[in-house]
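To illustrate the input format used throughout this study, we show a single complete record. The first block contains the structure-token representation of the backbone; no residue identities are included at this stage. The design step must infer an amino acid for every position from geometry alone.
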């Protein structure tokens, strides 16, 4: 007697029920953090397409490129006949792309983790859809253990941190960004207590905030590092005077995924080296 395979069902971060009749085996990843999760679950053989940025970050792997995270080629994706498309973020443009793909009968799951707890839920759900739930649980346990090894820092002893997303036309990471969660787990406090992910501000406002630490990401959103000491007004910042400037890779800090745990560890170690948090 044949037994019918059990359907694989999750609820994505839109609140939409996603059901597969069998484990996903032809996956298109539209976001680098999603790709990092798939690779961490050893699902290279199930991945058939990714973005141009993924190809640049993983030159030894070759998959069909479908454009960028925000502007993927619908024609290319349709031609590949995927059984699962994974996207991260709920910007209107991302949701519109998902709707167009779903109109053609394709299955799209969207995740939008705002913190590590939600990231771990995302990993677990991808594990369910790919029938690698056991591996997903082991990965989550490993990542949680790494975070738990970070030394807790009392609120009154946390240094203030500013995270530069882009310059010029200064853009900082706000309270609702995943970066803010990384800063907190590392022992710092985001100086931008603004209820948005990304915040535009001018140098005068930054001077008033006067953070203890200034982080600059380098990557597609901020391709060229402009030394802070050479910028007008920036010489007066506490972080610049004390040389508490930390250059980081955009793909580690601004893409929710397994790499963000390493980002928190690296920032924690930087704060320790600079004696900005307790040493034990």
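Output of the design step:
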């Amino acid at each position: 007697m044949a037994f019918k395979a059990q359907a694989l069902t999750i609820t994505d971060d839109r609140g939409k029920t996603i059901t597969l009749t069998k484990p996903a085996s032809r996956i298109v990843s539209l976001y680098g953090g999603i790709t990092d999760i798939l690779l961490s679950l050893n699902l290279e053989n199930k991945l058939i397409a990714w973005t141009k940025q993924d190809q640049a970050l993983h030159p030894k792997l070759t998959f069909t490129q479908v454009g960028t995270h925000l502007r993927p080629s619908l024609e290319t994706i349709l031609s590949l006949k995927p059984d699962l498309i994974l996207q991260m973020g709920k910007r209107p443009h991302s949701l519109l792309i998902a709707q167009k793909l779903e109109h053609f009968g394709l299955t799209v799951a969207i995740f939008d983790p705002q913190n590590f707890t939600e990231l771990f839920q995302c990993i677990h759900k991808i594990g369910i859809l790919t029938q690698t739930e056991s591996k997903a649980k082991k990965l989550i346990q490993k990542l949680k253990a790494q975070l738990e090894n970070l030394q807790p820092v009392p609120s009154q002893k946390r240094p203030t941190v500013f995270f530069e997303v882009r310059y010029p036309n200064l853009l900082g990471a706000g309270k609702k960004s995943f970066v803010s969660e990384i800063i907190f787990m590392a022992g710092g406090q985001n100086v931008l207590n603004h209820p948005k992910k990304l915040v535009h501000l001018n140098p005068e406002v930054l001077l008033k905030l006067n953070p203890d630490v200034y982080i600059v990401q380098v990557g597609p959103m901020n391709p060229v590092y402009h030394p802070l000491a050479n910028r007008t007004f920036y010489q007066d910042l506490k972080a610049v005077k004390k040389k508490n400037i930390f250059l980081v890779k955009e793909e580690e800090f601004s893409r929710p995924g397994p790499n963000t745990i390493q980002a928190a560890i690296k920032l924690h170690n930087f704060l320790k080296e600079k004696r900005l948090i307790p040493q034990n």
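Structural context for interpreting the output: The chain has a mean pLDDT of 95. Residues 133-148 form the longest helix (16 residues).
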